Amino acid sequence: MSETPGSEFVIPAALLARIYAQSRAEFPSECCGYLRGRGADMRLYPCKNFMDKLHAMDPETYPRTSANGYNFGGRELMEFTRAFDGDDPPTIIYHSHPRVGAYFSAEDEAAALAAGYPVDYLVVDAQEHEIAGAVLFRRVRDVGPGAYVEVARFPGEAR
Fold first, then answer.
1. Is the pLDDT score of 88 beyond 50?
2. Rounded to 5, what percent of the chain is helix, strand, coil?
3. Strand 130-139 relative to strand 148-158: parallel, antiparallel, unpaired?
4. Local structure of 15: helix, strand or coil
5. For 85, which of 18, 35, 117, 157 is 20 to 30 Å away at the CA?
6. 34-49: per-residue pLDDT in tens?
7. b/e code 24-51 from CB counts within 10 Å (16+ = b)
8. Would you kindly state where each structural domain of the chain is located, as residue ranges?
9. pLDDT bucket at 159, cuts 50 / 70 / 90
10. How far is CA 106 from CA 34, 55, 96, in A?
């Protein structure tokens, strides 16, 4: 299957709707998960945000909570990392930003650079009464700030 120019930035509407639904359901916490595949073959893997659990265990190492951070772990993290060894690796990690907008924060960039996963990052703008949209970021340089740049925007939807 050949892709049209720019199709690497296409997220099927049905999957984007499911990501938005997860963002609404987990609001005011950040939601998280990942996508595998591209275009029409893309699949969604929602994950549990472990940030509150990590913060409770060690608040000094993990000062953030699910209100302003995400971290998926356990079986979901194992499945995610193992998928890079197969023919169908993850292509996008997503998370929501409750109340603060869809931008790639310094914390997002530092975590992405440290992890080194060869994926794009989708950030959802989750507001009190709407999902205001989402922005896809891609790594363009080896180190930041500015290692990740906006490559696509997606429209939001009312709650």
1. yes
2. 30, 30, 40
3. antiparallel
4. helix
5. 18
6. 999 988 899 999 999 9
7. bebbebbbbbbbbbbeeebebbbbbbbb
8. 7-158
9. low
10. 20, 19, 15
